[in-house]
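Priority: medium. Attachment 1 of 2:
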């Protein structure tokens, strides 16, 4: 919806920002709808001066907003105003910042699609899509006006791509063939099958045509080894774009991508999910590596988009082709491939005929009963680790929980220290920087006290995280050189790269880590991977918990046995008879898919329906409950049984905001545009209810 505001400007030429004066509106012959960097629904209307050469959309403009001046993007142009908008109330654009548009028409179409599909203001999309520097009036895109920032320059040797194996060559041919009919192809290749080499050869074909290639990875951390491999082939044609490079460097990368035209050399852009927003002019190929990964889904703030879906839409807008690659496809992606929406290519064998790792299960209940445990390590696991270390081979220990322990409790009265702002227990941390407790949701910290404040009893630590494993490893394997890879050890710049290089150079024998160690890492001498407690991966209240657990375990298993010897994965569990392990032992990803897809069809979950979750937040729990019930009633009146009852999430309070949810399940045959229109109508009606006005209502399409 367009909005209008009062007019101020100067009589002739561009307006004086400091002393604006009112003039006759006949001086302006056109109007611009401008997207502003605010959580604003729709655009604002501004007038264009006679001598302001805005001839197309996508220009950066300085406009007044209340008493402030902000940078916006021209979304559309018109010679007339919409009905009901008074000309004498329109304020003029203050200034142009560049001599050409800096946002392409394809980008603007994508922004509107994201705003519409993910039910969020277009201003939120702009904030996510552009580097912060681009919204600074001092930043110039004109290379003649300001000295540019270096991007990092690769100075090493450039080599030819490796020769493809028969399996890889067949995959390349099949992908090319299927692209003739399908814009998107799913490449399912087992871990260490050589998918990266397939990507490299397909990228080369695009670069030879002067095209751009977007290579998405789910996590920033994965760019380290990947970038080094790609730079050896593509040199300085490779650009890196993610949140850990400086904002100025991101803006410069944005400028370089924008500058690509028919005469430019090809470019490869490697990045995390935000790279889908770059201003591609000659995009030929989008690769979504590890396409199953949940990190592709943006959680907060809005827009809560899924980068895989946005990448496919980006390709649709630009005419590019899409390749989704993984060893463990997302259920939705495999469903789309098997039903003919996507092309489908498989690589079932590992590179050079290497066998997939052997899976060994250890029954923790039996081990504890027999008192055959050393801390959280079973006797058989300790023996196998010692055997590998004596042979100078490397070991990875996987525990998907950082910190020392999940919580501590008084055995006398049951007291558990909790976060004052969130409905969660405080995680115990004990490291070289000092001991303490922290909330992993809001960051609240407290001192570590072993005396119960309620009854004076002695507190006991329960459970274990990666920090506690460090202590146990030091006792059990005193001569082993170890490192820990988790969020806490990789906060500093380049810390992740340093740990990975140390492990790759055999300066570390034993690597302890969270899910960071499961993704895309390649080490020739890792012969053993141990999962310390698999049960906490799938005992979660989510229809996706088995899918996520299987993918994580299969991916971490893929780190073992990559050079001439079959690796082994030892999984400690209290539930060795769980059906998930049957599929895992056989590396039967297709069988796992069919098991899960049957359950989802029976209980009406994706891919057979679309989900939309509405989350209600407020500091007053009673108000949240009342507003949630009111919203649920309004939605039931429109959607009937497609609307759930009011739901209490697993964590009902975060940062002192109480939380309730309502979920819609919309069948695939229904009109999504009609659904979104109805949801927006209900949300607009909610703003008229006094008790709902102060509550925050967030929408999330396709939640994970």
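Attachment 2 of 2:
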């Amino acid at each position: 919806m367009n909005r209008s505001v009062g007019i101020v400007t100067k009589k002739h030429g561009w307006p004086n920002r400091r002393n604006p004066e009112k003039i006759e509106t006949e001086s302006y012959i056109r109007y611009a709808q401008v997207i502003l960097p605010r959580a604003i629904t729709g655009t604002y209307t501004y007038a264009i001066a006679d001598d302001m050469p805005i001839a197309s959309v996508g220009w950066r403009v300085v406009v007044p907003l209340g008493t402030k001046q902000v940078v916006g993007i021209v979304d559309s142009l018109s010679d007339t105003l919409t009905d009901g908008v008074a000309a004498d109330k329109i304020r003029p654009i203050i200034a142009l910042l560049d001599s050409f548009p800096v946002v392409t028409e394809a980008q603007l179409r994508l922004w509107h699609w994201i705003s519409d599909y993910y039910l969020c203001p277009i201003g939120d999309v702009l904030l996510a899509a552009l580097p912060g520097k681009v919204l600074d009036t001092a930043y110039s895109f004109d290379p003649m006006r300001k000295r540019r920032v270096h991007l990092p320059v690769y100075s090493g040797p450039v080599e030819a791509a490796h020769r493809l194996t028969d399996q890889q060559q067949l995959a390349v041919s099949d992908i090319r063939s299927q692209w003739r009919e399908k814009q998107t192809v799913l490449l399912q290749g087992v871990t260490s099958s050589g998918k990266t080499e397939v990507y490299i050869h397909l990228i080369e074909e695009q670069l030879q045509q002067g095209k751009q290639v977007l290579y998405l990875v789910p996590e920033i951390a994965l760019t380290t080894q990947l970038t080094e491999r790609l730079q050896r082939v593509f040199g300085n044609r490779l650009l890196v774009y993610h949140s850990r490079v400086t904002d100025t460097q991101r803006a410069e990368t944005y400028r370089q991508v924008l500058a690509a035209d028919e005469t430019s050399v090809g470019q490869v852009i490697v990045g995390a999910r935000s790279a889908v927003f770059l201003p591609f002019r000659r995009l030929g190929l989008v690769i979504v590596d590890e396409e199953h990964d949940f990190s592709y889904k943006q959680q907060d703030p809005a827009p809560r988009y899924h980068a895989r879906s946005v990448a496919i839409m980006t390709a649709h807008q630009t005419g590019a082709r899409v390749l989704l690659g993984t060893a463990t496809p997302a259920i939705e992606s495999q469903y789309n491939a098997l039903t003919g929406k996507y092309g489908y290519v498989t690589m079932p064998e590992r590179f050079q005929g290497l066998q997939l790792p052997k899976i060994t299960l250890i029954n923790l209940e039996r081990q504890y009963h027999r008192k055959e445990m050393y801390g959280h390590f079973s006797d058989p696991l300790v023996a196998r680790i010692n055997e590998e270390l004596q042979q100078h081979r490397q070991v990875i220990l996987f525990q998907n929980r950082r910190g020392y322990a999940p919580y501590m409790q008084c055995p006398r009265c049951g007291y558990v220290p909790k976060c004052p702002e969130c409905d969660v227990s405080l995680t115990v941390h004990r490291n070289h920087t000092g001991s303490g407790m922290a909330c992993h949701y809001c960051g609240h910290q407290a001192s570590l006290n072993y005396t119960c404040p309620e009854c004076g009893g002695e507190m006991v630590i329960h459970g274990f995280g990666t920090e506690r494993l460090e202590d146990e490893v030091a006792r059990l394997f005193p001569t082993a050189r170890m490192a820990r890879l988790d969020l806490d050890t990789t906060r500093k710049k380049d810390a992740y790269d340093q740990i990975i290089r140390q492990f790759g150079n055999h300066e570390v024998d034993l690597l302890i880590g969270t899910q960071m160690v499961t993704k895309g890492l390649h080490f020739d001498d890792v012969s053993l991977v141990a999962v310390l407690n698999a049960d906490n991966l799938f005992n979660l209240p989510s229809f996706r918990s088995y899918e996520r657990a299987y993918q994580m375990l299969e991916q971490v298993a893929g780190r073992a046995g990559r050079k001439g010897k079959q690796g082994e994965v030892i999984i400690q569990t209290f539930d060795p008879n769980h059906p998930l392990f049957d599929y895992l032992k056989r590396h039967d990803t297709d069988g796992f898919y069919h098991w899960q897809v049957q359950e989802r069809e029976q209980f009406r979950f994706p891919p057979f329906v679309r989900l939309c979750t509405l989350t209600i937040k407020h500091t007053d729990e009673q108000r949240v409950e009342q507003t949630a019930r009111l919203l649920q009633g309004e939605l039931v009146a429109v959607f009937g049984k497609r609307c759930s009852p009011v739901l209490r999430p697993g964590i009902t309070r975060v940062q002192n905001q109480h939380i309730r949810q309502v979920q819609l399940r919309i069948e695939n045959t229904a009109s999504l545009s009609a659904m979104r229109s109805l949801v927006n109508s209900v949300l607009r009606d909610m703003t008229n209810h006094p008790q709902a006005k102060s509550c925050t209502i967030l929408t999330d399409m396709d939640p994970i």
